Amino acid sequence: MTAVLALTTSLMWGLADFGGGLLTRRMSALTVVVASQTLATVVLGALVLATGSWSEWGPQLWFAVAAGVVGPVAMLAFYRALAQGPMGVVSPLASLAVLVPVGAGLALGARPGWLQGAGLLIALTGVVLAGGPELRGEPVQRRTLALTLVAAFGFGAVLALIEHASTNLAGLFLALFVQRVCNVAIGGAALLAQARRDTPTLPQEGRPALLAALPALAFVGLADVAANGTYMVAAQTGPVMVAAVLASLYPLVTALAARGFLQERLRGVQAVGAGVALAGSILLGTAG
């Protein structure tokens, strides 16, 4: 069950990244983040009210608050690193976020068996290769490298934090709602600052284009929420290290979506990464 939920997380995150990437071709990346998360917050707020999840309010929600603060910072660092490029270096380096929850699990006493450990190492190798690393080309600037590592640490911290944000289904809805409220607050403040610097925040076509994009923005936001939810459950029902590694295969999903919808070519190293990750996943499932 843990492997299935974690792979579902990868699917949802990968599709959300693909949709967000398409939208950022038409409007500011920060606008995409804030708008999509705002729509997701509205839906989650309705779920919280409908299910009476407010009764689950407790100190564990500080983990959701922390994830909601760290997440937008990591995302903005990631987008800026991608803008400075090269993407073939930034993407696989960012996928190293998985090392944070894996390291946290080891620090808290988790000790995988030899078969499970081998599966973890193989799957982690597949995660990095699936990002399509570029081993040749221009050297990466220090600023770009720093931004990428900040993003990787931030993404990994979010994975580690949301694991502890709830203990049941009602608490899951509330934790995700609190996380998204913080996302919108941080992202909204950054968007306001961007607008005050006269940086464009709307598509070139103006508000009508933004309104037309609302269904796509809602999909991106809700897919991200669904991914966070399935990851929480996966991390609570099985080894967190297994959940974290398998959930980090989302760059491959994004690449496959680009291949299917945009006819973008899947690089050889990504295909190899997919096979390696699949082998590691099978080994993890056998070991679990």
From TrEMBL:
Highest taxon listed in the record's lineage? Bacteria
Presence of the UniProt keyword Cell wall biogenesis/degradation in the record: no
Keywords (A to Z) from UniProt: Membrane, Transmembrane, Transmembrane helix
- Domain EamA per the UniProt entry, residue ranges: 3-130, 145-284
The Gene Ontology CC terms held by the record are:
membrane
Where does the sequence pass through the membrane?
6-23, 30-49, 61-82, 89-108, 114-132, 144-162, 168-193, 209-234, 240-262, 269-287
Q: Which InterPro entries match?
A: EamA_dom, EmrE-like
Q: Which family does it belong to?
A: Belongs to the EamA transporter family.
Q: What is this protein called?
A: EamA domain-containing protein
What species is this protein from? Answer: Streptomyces oceani
